């Protein structure tokens, strides 16, 4: 009886985890390979979901504070000796001012902070140099193309031989243990499909431009060296994270997609989105897309040191169910709201700078959707050390007496919002030359 019950439960888990998300992801044929991937992904979500999220949030806060002390003490020295290199936050400080970054690219893998801290990408793997910007064969991608690089099974550190514009014919389905490292080249993924990280772990995408992304019809696409599958239409997200964990997106320049710039859905977790520059698009970041998919409670995402620039309308981010730590970001004249949510998500907003537009109707940073006022008041949405300009205001909620439990006794606050312009000064893809500080 017990056995039967367990089996039944397993079956249930199975069909819930695998089938529903797969179908909604437009995998036209849900075969054994996708079923196994879905199942494994759900297990890793479980593994990387942190039952004490604030410990990770405070780890990041400590680092920001440490750096500020150092920088205050050494500012004169740093400026005098480096000239061009000015790391303004603890993630950048981990690598940007080292001249040998190009010989030691994989050192970047240790630099993530926040929920994506464990993302190692292609660390320990070979360097794969993309030499060919074409994307013509979906089933048998040519050696030297980005698509050929990302379908490999082993860890790979993917770099670019030269500046290139890559127009993806269909969504780029990325296998786990990959770093896509645009440093040293001016790489644009544009005018075609975007990235799809589906049921994978350990992906880092760093230092590229992604823009003008549109939906594609789908069809037969190779998603790994040993698997080709039929896909339905893709949504036209710049980066879509689906049932995946340990993901770090850093120094991306993102604008204009058909759907979202970054979507993380279906119990994706352990994600950091940092140092990115967002502009000119309606929907920036969606964390959780379904009102009924309660597994998204396990979603934990850090949004840090980003610049949300003009021309954005909403979702910076918008969260369902999960937890978002939004720290030291610069918000500039959103057109509807900045941070939104549904289904009782937890929002910890610290040390951001919110500059509202002149429109009297869009002064509020926050937006609670599909809830009664009573329900909205119970969600924990907290603002600490944020700076509000031009009439911007944050509508806090949740029991203010309910302490978010910190692990460390002397947790230091993130940098105040007044420092954010400097902290986010280098958001977006950087121009880096080998042999020079970046
Ligand atoms: C699936 O395809 C349909 C049409 O074929 C499209 O409307 C829908 O947006 C697609 N969904 C996803 C998640 O790509
Ligand atoms: C703040 O949010 C609560 C809950 O949704 C709502 O009832 C209240 O009217 C809001 N206050 C302001 C000033 O917008």
Automatic annotation (TrEMBL):
It is an enzyme of class 4 (lyase). Residues 1-25 form the signal peptide. Keywords: Calcium, Glycoprotein, Lyase, Metal-binding, Signal. It catalyses: Eliminative cleavage of (1->4)-alpha-D-galacturonan to give oligosaccharides with 4-deoxy-alpha-D-galact-4-enuronosyl groups at their non-reducing ends. It holds the Pfam family Pectate_lyase_4. Binds 1 Ca(2+) ion. Required for its activity. Pathway: Glycan metabolism; pectin degradation; 2-dehydro-3-deoxy-D-gluconate from pectin: step 2/5. GO terms for molecular function: metal ion binding; pectate lyase activity. Gene3D superfamilies: Single-stranded right-handed beta-helix, Pectin lyase-like (2.160.20.10). InterPro entries: AmbAllergen, Pec_lyase, Pec_lyase_N, Pectin_lyas_fold, Pectin_lyase_fold/virulence, PEL. GO terms for biological process: pectin catabolic process. Belongs to the polysaccharide lyase 1 family. This is Pectate lyase. It comes from Citrus clementina.
